[in-house]
Write a structure and sequence with these properties.
Helix content: 40-55%
Strand order of the largest sheet: 1-2-3
Shape: elongated
Oligomer: single chain
Length: 113
């Protein structure tokens, strides 16, 4: 994703986050499940960007099977954020801080050791 973002391909980044799921990859091959077939016109751009990044031509295999669609990257990122918030509720240091400062507005939580 970082390499695709660096190529400044906004529509491609959006498709990779929200509409496509990378199912498998191997040497010179990407297997993608497509959630939104309207974005299939971006597949040649994906091939081009991957070739620029890797220095070789890659085969992109596309499957359209919305029934068995794994979560997209955006959905996974959202779930990870929810899981982190739930985990914070049991963090003893955060609970102590919230007990001391009971009317505070929590804006950011950084990891502690």
């Amino acid at each position: 994703m970082a390499a695709v973002r660096a190529c400044k391909e906004g529509l491609l980044v959006d498709a990779l986050l929200n509409d496509w799921v990378l199912v498998d990859y191997g040497h010179g091959r990407l297997h993608i499940k497509v959630k939104n077939s309207e974005k299939k016109h971006l597949l040649p751009a994906l091939r081009t960007v991957v070739a620029q990044i890797c220095g070789a031509s890659w085969q992109v295999i596309v499957t359209e099977d919305s029934k068995a669609m794994p979560p997209t990257l955006a959905e996974r990122y959202q779930q990870e954020a929810l899981d982190q918030r739930e985990a914070l509720k049991t963090d003893p240091l955060l609970c102590q801080a919230l007990d001391v400062f009971n009317n505070c507005l929590l804006t950011q939580v950084l990891p502690h050791d």
